[in-house]
Design goal:
The protein has helices at 33-45, 61-72, 97-111, 132-143, 157-163, 187-193, 224-227, 245-258, 266-274, 289-294, 306-324; strands at residues 3-5, 12-14, 18-19, 50-52, 78-83, 118-122, 150-153, 169-175, 197-201, 281-282. By secondary structure, the protein is α/β, with parallel strands linked by helices.
C-alpha cells in the first residue's frame, strides 16, 4: 500500500481506501453486519487505513459497523462520516447549526467514538456554501473535541471552489474518473494551493468502468442504477457519473481496445486517477471482501503511457464531454 497526505489534516492515508455506501451488501439489499465486518477486515488487512461512511448509509447501520470495527483493531484507522442528507426536504433552509450539531452527536453515538477524524457536509444545496454560520459551527465542534476536521462532499466543481474558501475546510470529496474529468481543470490546482485534501468518489462510474456491463445487464429495484438513471431520487451525476448508459457502454468498448490486456478495466481506471498528484485517496465501494482487495490491483500495474492517456482523453472528448462536462 502507498500512502498520501490528506491535505492540511496531516493524516497519511492509503491512496486507495474504502467507501461504505454498500458495505452491508449489494445496493438495495438489507444491511448485513457480518458482510460489513468481513469487508472491513479484508480492507485493513490489505493496508487500507481510511474508511468513509455517512449517517444515511444503511440508515445508520454503516456507521455502527464501522465504529464497532475500528474499536476492534489496534491500527490507527481514520474514520470519515457525513451529515446533512437526513434533512427532508433537503434544502438550504433546513441546514441549521443546531440541527447539524445533533447529526454530529448522533454519529458519535452510532460509532461509539469520542471524536470524528473528519466530518463532511453531505452534498448540501449550493446555497449552503454561501452561509458562513454553517461553517463556523464546526470550529466550535472542533474546540469541543467532537471533531478533528471539517470536509465537504460536493456535486459540482463550483461548490468545491466556493467551499475551499473557508479556512476550516480541509478536504473535498468529489466525483472524478475517466468519464468525469472537469475537476482536474481548475479545482485540483486551487485545492493544492490551499493544501486541501481530495477524496475521489464514484471512481468507476457506478461500475461502468469495470467493462463488465452490457445492454442486457440488469439491476435490482433497490439499486440506484435501476431507479436513479435520470435523477429521480438524488443528483443523477451520482449514477454512472451522469452518463447516458448506452453512451457509456459505447465509450467503454473503445476503452477495451486501448487496454486489451485487461479483462477488468477497474485497475486501469483507478491507476488513471492516481496519476493526478492532487488526489489524496480514492474510495471505491465494495459489496463483498473480494471487491475490497481487488481494487488494490491498481497499485501493482504500471502508470498509463502518454499514448494511452491521450486515447482516454480522446474517448472522453468524443462520447462524454458533450453530455456532462458543463453540468458538474
Amino acid at each position: 500500500m502507498n500512502y498520501r497526505r490528506l491535505g492540511k489534516t496531516g493524516f497519511d492515508i492509503s491512496e486507495i481506501s474504502l467507501g461504505t455506501w454498500q458495505v452491508g451488501g449489494k445496493w438495495g439489499d438489507d444491511f448485513s453486519h457480518d458482510n460489513a465486518e468481513k469487508i472491513l477486515h479484508a480492507a485493513v488487512d490489505a493496508g487500507i487505513n481510511f474508511i468513509d461512511t455517512a449517517d444515511v448509509y444503511g440508515a445508520g447501520e454503516s456507521e455502527k459497523a464501522v465504529g464497532k470495527f475500528v474499536k476492534s483493531r489496534s491500527e490507527r484507522i481514520y474514520v470519515a462520516t457525513k451529515c446533512g442528507r437526513q434533512l427532508s426536504p433537503h434544502v438550504s433552509e433546513a441546514y441549521q447549526p443546531a440541527v447539524l450539531r445533533k447529526f454530529v452527536e448522533d454519529s458519535l453515538q452510532n460509532m461509539g467514538l469520542e471524536t470524528l477524524d473528519l466530518i463532511q457536509l453531505h452534498c448540501p444545496p449550493t446555497e449552503v456554501y454561501y452561509r458562513p454560520e454553517i461553517f463556523e459551527l464546526f470550529d466550535r465542534l472542533k474546540d469541543e473535541g467532537k471533531i478533528l476536521n471539517l470536509g465537504i462532499s460536493v456535486e459540482k466543481v463550483e461548490e468545491a471552489l466556493k467551499g475551499i474558501e473557508y479556512e476550516n475546510v480541509t478536504t473535498v470529496q468529489i466525483i472524478f474518473n475517466m468519464f468525469r474529468q472537469r475537476p482536474a481543470e481548475l479545482f485540483f490546482e486551487q485545492a493544492q494551493k490551499r493544501n486541501v485534501g481530495i477524496i475521489v468518489r464514484v471512481p468507476l462510474a457506478s461500475g461502468l468502468l469495470t467493462g463488465k456491463f452490457s445492454k442486457s445487464s440488469s439491476f435490482t429495484e433497490g439499486d440506484h442504477r435501476f431507479f436513479n438513471r435520470n435523477g429521480e431520487r438524488f443528483d443523477k451525476g451520482e449514477t454512472f457519473s451522469g452518463i447516458d448508459y448506452e453512451t457509456g457502454l459505447a465509450a467503454v468498448e473503445e476503452l477495451k481496445c486501448v487496454f486489451p490486456a485487461y479483462a477488468n478495466l477497474a485497475p486501469v481506471a483507478l491507476r488513471w486517477i492516481l496519476q493526478f498528484a492532487a488526489v489524496s485517496t480514492i474510495i471505491p465501494g465494495a459489496s463483498n471482501p473480494e471487491q475490497a482487495t481487488a481494487n488494490l490491483e491498481a497499485l501493482r500495474i504500471p502508470n498509463l503511457s502518454a499514448e494511452q492517456c491521450a486515447a482516454v482523453n480522446g474517448i472522453y472528448e468524443k462520447y462524454i464531454k458533450p453530455q456532462v462536462h458543463h453540468l458538474w
